[in-house]
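Here comes a specimen:
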Amino acid sequence: MKESHESHNIACLNCDRSDQEVPLLMFTFGNQTRYICTACFPILVHKSEKLAHKLPGYVPPSDPSHEH
């Protein structure tokens, strides 16, 4: 299994695809560098509650349908 951080294998936090397979975006959370692929990025933006279990300490917004 690929690690999304703490190793030389850079992979998507959600789907575990590597940067050799898909474009990855880098972000930080909890003082750690994480990666998410361009296909999974909309999940992080619009349905972050689905990724909360993969980001220890993250608390999704109480109203996931909030508008900006």
